[in-house]
Amino acid sequence: MLVGLLADANLTGAKGNGIVFGWDMASLKFFGVQVLGTVVGMLWSGVWTYILFRTMRKFVNIDINAETELEGLDRKQIGEKSYRFAEMSRHHVLTFELCSACKIGDFREVLRIEKKKQPQNSRIIATSRNATVNMLDYDDRTALHISCCYNQIDVAELLLKCGALVDVVDR
Question: Which positions does the entry assign to ANK repeats (predicted)?
């Protein structure tokens, strides 16, 4: 449709202009055909999408209950266990917050999270008093891994001062 609007015969050598660069009946007709083609294409796609979704709803169970949503579709339906959903949700949140702050280099947020008391039964490497910085994420990475990966040198130095271990290996 942009060709019907913005075509310039002086630049392209075409026979007519688009509506913006001096229009006549031919350019209006050309633009009308483009609009009609776009509308027909959208309707065609919409009809087939509707048919496809109705067919899927009839033959495939795509509705899930709240329990499945909470536990995870892969784990509930096919027993997928590569994700570590069994860990405590507070640990997940704290690890996610810490790794996110390390990724963007948010020095103050890393300090705030490090001062939080770590949850009991959390997956940590060390049992030092500052073990929050050594919590593992889903790929067995620590905050130090993340900060080094994203070249956040100041955050990495802070993590080292807070007791981050340097010899932890991720998967």
Answer: 139-171
CA 142/CA 99 separation, integer angstroms? 8
CB 135 within 8 A of CB 95: yes
112 and 154 share a domain?
yes
The verdict on residue 114 lying in a domain is: yes
Query: Residue 53 is part of which domain span?
Result: 2-59
Distance CA 94, CA 119 (A): 9
CB atoms within 10 A of CB 113: 22
Q: Is 76 or 121 the better-scoring residue by pLDDT?
A: 76
Is the pLDDT at 86 greater than 60, yes or no? no
Please list, in sequence order, all residues whose beta carbon lies within 8 angstroms of the beta carbon of residue 64, skipping any fewer than 6 positions away.
Answer: 73, 76
Q: What is the mean pLDDT of residues 43-48?
A: 97
